[in-house]
Write a structure and sequence with these properties.
Length: 462
């Protein structure tokens, strides 16, 4: 019996030795911005560690009259829903909570724009609000639909409540809300509200059947920048752009196998745009060395993906980034040989002269470009604003003011134009407040348009 107990005890304390598993060497990988047949090469491996552990610098600011930034984007279009959209019954009620959204104070709007006779009716549909440039009203209507809080029965009919499982309408309304907030200079509020989406790259937002992403691409790209601002982590934008780029590479490969040329070109364009956005995010982090190094990798290879559609918009974006970094020769190379479109090379040459302080030479180029466009029936606001800036720096303030006021009379009312014109008023006279108020009244009397009708006090420096 003692032998039996001893035998059982020894069996209770023994273990079966697991078999040794052979190790496999790690397979090589490519960077998310790499495409075999696209000019965007692999990202620099040393940047990844720098993004995750390096110090974060404060974003830089630019002077209002130094260079004319791009005008506000036209009315945001809700992401298109394809007929083969994924189907899911996931509950997105956590995105419909009223406490997510902020109230928009009318006090930031000049009195001429608050006139009830000029405001749209509460029952106006959101697409019509966007077409007429009523971005503030569209943002409010989107929240009323999302939170099921209409102010009247007619408003409820125009903006019906959302089903928590109707992901397509929920994300379309969220995109409208966030984009409109950005267009009315309320990006800080949009950044806070975008935090409710949390991690858009998580598996929760994937369709359980098809694996397709439920969130439209436009909202995902917009969410990257807004969440980086909302969470106070600019490095988050760089890493999120790389996640999107990895998905774009996968979609390009999938479209190539299916011989879907249109889908392949669409995803290549998106990948190229992400490459430019990464450079912009690095500049905002004040990591200029990394931005320059990254832009240099985007310039390698053929230029075909940057000329999709023939407008050269991405080539111009890269040129403007190089100008921001102070490398005028690299900016010129981006648009040479027609890469930036018909007028792109002339525009970049004029901006490069301004960056070098050659305002007399730049003035001649802007004047020639303005005359050429007007002969073709085009009145370009960006050309006019830069022409006025060169006139100011060459001692022709009165002419510069006339050029800007002529643009307003022609119906141009972007933030860039109004801000520079009101700055001109401040330089011309001490009684500039009356001029600013009259300017606000002139702009409010204009017909609504998709470029945006309602303005804020900041537009007129009130």
């Amino acid at each position: 019996m003692d032998q039996s107990i001893q035998r059982n005890s020894s069996l209770g304390h023994t273990r079966n030795r697991s078999g040794a598993r052979p190790s496999r060497p790690r397979s090589s990988t490519k960077g998310p911005l790499d495409v075999d047949d696209a000019p965007i090469t692999s990202p620099i491996s040393t940047q990844a560690s720098r993004f995750s552990s390096g110090p974060v610098a404060s974003p830089r600011t630019s002077t209002p009259l130094a260079r004319s930034p791009a005008p506000r984007s036209p009315a945001p279009r809700s992401p298109a829903l394809s007929s083969a959209a994924p189907v899911t019954s996931k509950d997105f009620s956590f995105l419909l909570r009223p406490e997510i959204f902020h109230q928009l104070s009318p006090l930031s709007v000049p009195p001429p724009f608050r006139n009830p006779s000029r405001q749209p009716a509460p029952e106006t549909p959101i697409p019509e609000l966007l077409r007429n440039g009523h971005f503030r009203a569209a943002a409010i209507a989107a929240v009323q639909a999302l939170t099921s809080s209409p102010v009247s029965a007619t408003t409820a009919a125009a903006h019906p409540p959302v089903d928590p499982t109707d992901h397509a309408r929920i994300f379309a309304l969220l995109y409208t809300r966030l984009a409109c907030l950005c267009l009315i200079d309320a990006a800080a509020l949009a950044a806070q509200e975008s935090k409710a989406l949390e991690d858009l790259n998580s598996a929760f937002y994937l369709d359980p059947l098809s694996g397709a992403h439920l969130v439209p691409w436009e909202l995902r790209v917009l969410g990257v920048r807004l969440q980086a601002i909302g969470f106070g982590d600019p490095r988050r934008a760089v890493m999120s752009y790389y996640e999107l780029a990895r998905e774009a590479r996968s979609q390009i490969a999938k479209a190539g196998k299916a011989h879907d040329h249109s889908a392949s070109e669409r995803w290549k364009r998106r990948l190229a745009e992400l490459g430019v956005k990464v450079a912009g995010a690095l500049i905002e982090m004040d990591d200029l060395a990394a931005a320059a190094e990254h832009l240099a990798t985007l310039a390698e290879g053929t230029q075909k993906p940057f000329r999709i559609g023939g407008d050269g918009r991405l080539a111009m974006s890269r040129a403007l980034l190089w100008l921001h970094l102070g490398d005028v020769e690299a900016a010129r190379r981006c648009v040479e040989d027609g890469k930036g479109g018909e007028a792109g090379e002339k525009i970049v040459d004029a901006l490069a002269d301004m960056a070098d302080g050659e305002y007399g030479s730049a003035l001649e180029q802007w004047q020639a470009l303005k005359d050429e466009m007007e002969e073709n029936g085009v009145r370009d606001e960006m050309v006019g604003v830069n022409l006025a800036v060169c006139l100011l720096y060459t001692g022709n303030m009165a002419k510069a003011r006339d050029v800007l006021e002529g643009l307003v009379d022609a119906g141009q009312t972007s933030h860039t134009l109004l801000f520079n014109l009101t700055t001109m008023y401040e330089l011309c006279t001490d009684r500039h407040k009356n001029l600013k108020v009259k300017l606000a009244e002139r702009v409010a009397s204009k017909q609504p348009g998709p470029q945006g009708w309602e303005k804020t006090n900041a537009d007129f420096k009130l």
